[in-house]
Amino acid sequence: MRVVSLVPSLTEAVAETVPGALAGATDWCTHPADLAVTRVGGTKNPRVDRIVALAPDLVIANEEENRAPDLDALRAAGLTVLVTEVRSVPQAFRELARVLTACGATARPRWLDEAEDAWSAAPPVPALRTRAVVPVWRRPWMVLGRDTFAGDVLARLGVDNIHAGHADRYPRIPLDELRAAAPGLVVLPDEPYRFTADDGPEAFPGLPCALVSGRHLTWYGPSLAEAPRVLSAALRAVHR
User: Fold this and answer.
1) Residue 120 neighbours by CB distance under 10 Å
2) Model's pTM, two decimal places?
3) What is the pLDDT along the chain (240 residues), one digit of tens a residue?
4) Is the same domain home to 48 and 127?
5) Which of 67, 74, 98, 187 could form a disulfide linkage to 134, CB 3.0–4.6 angstroms apart?
6) CATH number reported for the structural domain that contains residue 21 in this entry
7) What is the torsion angle, in degrees rounded to the nearest 10, for the CA atoms of residue 187, residue 188, residue 191 and residue 196?
8) Is residue 217 within 8 Å of residue 228, measured between CB atoms?
9) Residue-wise DSSP of 42-99
10) Strand bridging mode 22-25 / 38-39
């Protein structure tokens, strides 16, 4: 089985579970750190010609991470493309199992069981239940909106996204409107935009800001097992 992954989360999951299956991955596939495969461009601008030249048995993608025209071009070239949809924690587990089986896994990996156990035992952070703004980009400011995996992750830890009812999944909201929403918390992940202590909290003076790991907030793979602990610690740190 030769697989090309266009999703960093899935790259990590396949590399961990089916060693040697990956023939190619995107430039943004950073885990595992020692992954030695052909790089095929970005998630939004993959090199279709390079992927086709690898002659994979399967290309794995995501309906949010990758663009439909690129996936259509791969199919037109005769490649099989498996497209995942992940908008909640339970859905992540189901899709991971489907992808790993398609990639040749002969048994369910231990890390997937550990991740399900971690989330089934993960209560909300004590006394945290609060409304939050969750920026994922700036210039322009964009936030989590409706029906997102990261929003479900936060809700399970006691953080309710103010914009969860927005018509868009990643709405553009002016900074003054984000401040005016008077959130009890601002959650600032370090990806896809790398918010830091000097680039994020300064935009929300007087509001508690939690800097969190984007990999644990938005990735679905082996990192899911430690995500409740890592994220809870970051949220708790600003609610002591």
Assistant:
1) 10
2) 0.93
3) 999 999 999 999 999 999 999 999 999 999 999 999 999 999 999 999 999 999 999 999 999 999 999 999 999 999 999 999 999 999 999 999 999 999 999 999 999 999 999 999 877 776 678 999 999 999 999 999 999 999 999 999 999 999 999 999 999 999 999 999 989 999 999 999 999 998 899 999 999 999 999 999 999 999 999 999 999 999 988 865
4) no
5) 187
6) 3.40.50.1980
7) -160
8) no
9) -SSSB-HHHHHHH--SEEEEETTTS-HHHHHHHHHTT--EEEE---SHHHHHHHHHHH
10) parallel
Q: Of 108, 137, 160, at which residue does a domain stop?
A: 108
Q: Is residue 116 part of a domain?
A: no
Polymer length of the chain: 240
Domains of the chain: total: 2
Q: Tell me which residue has tokens 């996204």.
A: 161
Query: Can you say whether the dihedral through the CA atoms of 118, 119, 121, 127 is positive or negative?
Result: positive
Report the alpha-carbon distance of residue 150 to residue 195 in Å, rounded. Answer: 16
Termini Cα distance of the chain: 50
| Pairwise CA distance, residues 95 & 83, whole Å | 9
List the domain range (segments joined by +) for residue 231.
123-237
Give the end of a domain, one of 78, 108, 138. Answer: 108
Q: Taking a C-beta distance cutoff of 8 angstroms, is the pair 135, 200 a contact?
A: yes
